[in-house]
Protein 1
Amino acid sequence: MIEIPKPTLGRLPLYYRALVAANEGGIEILSSAELGENAGVDSAQVRKDLTYFGQFGRPGVGYNVVNLLAELERILGLKNPNEAVLIGAGRLGMAICNYPGFSRYGLKIVAMFDVDPAKIGEKLDGLEVFSLEKLERIVGKLGSQIGIITTPAPSAQQVANKLVAAGVRAIWNFAPVNLKVPPSIILRNEDLAVGLATLSHYLSGKK
Amino acid sequence: MIEIPKPTLGRLPLYYRALVAANEGGIEILSSAELGENAGVDSAQVRKDLTYFGQFGRPGVGYNVVNLLAELERILGLKNPNEAVLIGAGRLGMAICNYPGFSRYGLKIVAMFDVDPAKIGEKLDGLEVFSLEKLERIVGKLGSQIGIITTPAPSAQQVANKLVAAGVRAIWNFAPVNLKVPPSIILRNEDLAVGLATLSHYLSGKK
DNA sequence: TAGATTGTTAATCGATTAACAATC
DNA sequence: TAGATTGTTAATCGATTAACAATC
């Protein structure tokens, strides 16, 4: 099995989005150049990325929008969304819960946890907030595979430990901290400071 | 002038964070191995990254924490924060406004904009929310360099156009859409679907 | 001096881009 | 058939990793 480059994986949602838009616009065929244009990616890159998964186009014609949409849905696993729990029902946590069409992108948040007594037992956006103490039990019962950490940085490592103990396979960390987890755990950090550093470097450079 | 690799820029905040923690812990010297351990980066990578900006260590000894902290503050421009306006005072917008110690990372949000009449004129976290119609005038007056877009996807392009017209130099886009902006504009997309795609790929793979 | 660790060069690895034969 | 566009190989580019002389 050939390894998929990480950047390729990151571009698939961009293609998916461009295809959804094209489909809604009634467009039936898209060339790699057109698809790339709408996704912000070079046409050669588009073709190369897609060939990691199969041959979806017709030479001299292009890609069938509906067909390629279906392929990407399959590749991205959008039909069988992953179930996740979210820890930290603050603003960021709620924002993520409400990320537009998150379910559409293959994620379903099934429970929220917090330490704030004022939030525990409440329903936020139709989702009950549980005490952090119940994390291990509930994750075990639900069999959730993903834990999303949106707590303040100082609590994040402790929460990560609980998630690992509870048996999640992946952690999506939004707290600005370097988490230590066993190598078997899939860890993805979403770090705003990283984006900001890039931005401000270019700002200071191109005077 | 040597071009700084983008991945290097993204790792600087990780080093900065590790150094802050070390400094608070009273640690005065850190080797590249120790710094890398705390930042989640290989030691050779740490040394290589730092040499793009200068020579900050002492062979046989390591890096002086306070000294390197000061250098990184300078490199990241944390002493002269960039001023930004934020458009879209929803949950995500508010979450970003409250990102822990954002000011510490060199960003100061100076005004918020929204189209919701219920929000316009209100003060959210001490920041007044203005009508989107006033965007161009206020950005011009304040001379803001960065526009942060946290609107729903369908409005994002229109907001980006207004920001460009108003004269911002950089756009930090959180809406899941491919924005078209002139090449002179620095554009950074923060896209949750990208992270999710990566996570779910690995989840489905390592059965 | 002996031991440790930097800064830097060279080797490796991985991703992007260019080019084009095959195909519609 | 002539024109267009894919899939794929080869060339280029850029980043990471390894190795080690210089330095403390």
Protein 2
Amino acid sequence: MDSEIALALRNKGCKLTPQRKAIIEVLSGSEEHLTAADIFARLRDKQPGIGLVTVYRTLELLQENGLLCEVHIGNSCRSYLKRRSDGHHHHLICRGCGRVVDFTGCELDSLQKRLSQETGFKIEKHLLEFMGCCSSCLDGRED
Amino acid sequence: MDSEIALALRNKGCKLTPQRKAIIEVLSGSEEHLTAADIFARLRDKQPGIGLVTVYRTLELLQENGLLCEVHIGNSCRSYLKRRSDGHHHHLICRGCGRVVDFTGCELDSLQKRLSQETGFKIEKHLLEFMGCCSSCLDGRED
DNA sequence: TATTAATTGAAAATTATTTTCATTTAACAT
DNA sequence: ATGTTAAATGAAAATAATTTTCAATTAATA
């Protein structure tokens, strides 16, 4: 029973290898954002022979196909998260536990239009992330 | 006649070395966002003996003191820009020439409050950047 | 079951960043 | 002006992150 992400990948004509399945499983099973190295570490048991290169390549592939989200705020610069919301959304990230909450309603469209008009830019994308500390981490004095 | 950034740095009790001045000059003279390596390359003439380490260290120092802005969208993950707007502002970045336009009025405060209430997070910061192509780059078919 | 293009892993290469440490120097006080 | 000193520098090495190369393997299809 392959995950939605896995199926989407096969629909794009990509091979569904055990390595890819394992990487997708790790991402699917996590509410945190994970770097390539994080994912690699979590694969030690499930898929011992896997190479870090494959993790990088798979992340790139999934990213290209819009099957996961890239997170920029945080310790390491780039980390990844399964895509949980279909539409346009953004992230609120806990710096304590790494948990990510999706949110919509950024209402940046009107801002984007305004900026476009004022500057003559053709705006292609935007990056919006909030970072803070979630209530469990606040309670646990992981502050 | 030292720049505002340089003076601010000295007011913080930091030494105003020729290396730091040169780095600040490069940043001050650029409307693009620059990586440590970019800055290092531009110092070849002005300050030939300088080490890349010093560039890294100076960027960190300036960043710590809020004297420049960090940019995340782009080829390399982290690059820097002189701080041109005093208050809270964000960036619109041209992926063609790297030129950065500051803008205000993101109106994320109300969104931030809403998110805080809905999630129980203590929100500490946010990252908002727009990326696109500026009119000159559009004209020049650098598209 | 055979075929084949896609995928993998190992190793090396590249790039980015940080640490260490001996030497130099800006800022300040004579 | 000159001496003092903590801060800053540069070289080199260490570490970390990412990409490339290439021969071997394998998932998907016929």
Protein 3
Amino acid sequence: MSIDPNLLDDLNARGLVHDSTDATRLAERLASSPVRAYVGFDPTADSLHVGNLVGLLMLRRLQDAGHNVIVLAGGATGMVGDPSGKSAERSLLDDEQLAANISGILPQLQQFLDFDSTDNPATLLDNRAWTVGFSYLDFLRDVGKFVTVNQMVAKDSVRSRMESSDGISYTEFSYMLLQAYDFAWLFEHEGCEMQMGGSDQWGNIVTGMDLIRKKVGGSAYGLTWPLLTRSDGSKYGKTAGGETIWLSAEKFSPYAFYQSWIRIEDAEIEKLLLQLTLMPVADVHAVMSEHAEAPHKRVAQTRLAVELTTLVHGPEATAGAQEATAAVFGGSVADLSADALAMLAMELPTFNASREVLGSEGALVPLLSESGITASNSEANRLLKQNGVSINDVKVPTDHVIHSADLLHGRFALVRKGKKHLSLVVFDQP
RNA sequence: GGGUCGGUGCCCGAGUGGCCAAAGGGAGCGGACUGUAAAUCCGCCGGCUUCGCCUACGGAGGUUCGAAUCCUCCUCGGCCCA
């Protein structure tokens, strides 16, 4: 397979290069022959989240351009915790949790890359393989000796934590060495010449390159991408409500995933299309100019949502999310067919309720809190008072009594909190 | 080990005996305006059987008519000294 000589230009055009080792040399190296490169992912949870997408796609871009990529699962580093970009010490994961996390993440890592390619199949490795058997004394002699504390302390990630009131534990302080050792090991045993990561990984990557130079006598490449942030500077990967946007359909429904992209503000949309999708740069520009002509149609948001949901959850789930969206934000809820409602039941938070509450006074408030639509009766009362609840698209007052005649198809109540928060209450069969 | 300062609601952070469910900011939620956007404005933002009651200011006791505020012990953290 031939390699794409324009890879680096493409990455630059997308704004995906934050920092790299000597740009000219890197460009030459990437254009001459396939490079082996890796990105590491620590199993801090049982699913990856949106914040990991850029890294996964970076590997994909490299692979598509003809290079050899390694996905590194941080089974060992995950035990320690990376202080980079973290303001506080993290709690340690126990073995059981870690094992569960790894098994949740592995299929996600695999889904973005081609492991069966005859030319340049991707490789999946776990750094436990070369770390668990490494004794502490050996580590101090073989790795620690090559790195001075002076340079470690100078790294931003460490310094900011040393200056904070919480401090940094020796454990997290040592993280950098583990990651550096990973890079050196991969360089030596897997012919891996390049490490990529988010911009907060620069210090760790550079430490790895130093180690390679001193310990192995080789020279490696490093590249970081900018951390994805909103226009207000906050990190991505969370909903407006602060919920993490997981890639796992169990933890975050495809519908909710799709919706979170539909709601992206205009100022962000081009950057996200460039950095989070595989769309050619020219296509992105075309979509953006179409969007600029009629912003209220939100074609760019729709495109982003479709691209990403398809990438993460597949075309079927995307179609389902689109249908649900059309039903709920398009026409009239009252016109929904029973089939459409059954489909919505799979996409929206759903709660089963007893028909006893129908026609009974004061049943609405407890129904709202029991279904999780509101966190408490107080909140439910408050929300109703503020005119924030509608059932089947009709705003309801505090003393509203639900009657069976109000239900769609005799048993469905689509409860809307504000404009965007929807839940489906399904009543028992009559 | 000694000294010292501190631990307040989702977060930051005021409060140093009653006027404290606890200022202010942020986040969040609802409403208006819109394009399921941004900006702006208004309201809400511990719980409950909601004109009142209960739970809360690291934990446990105590002083007091009354404590987030005072005392004792414990615990956790910062800083300084050893």
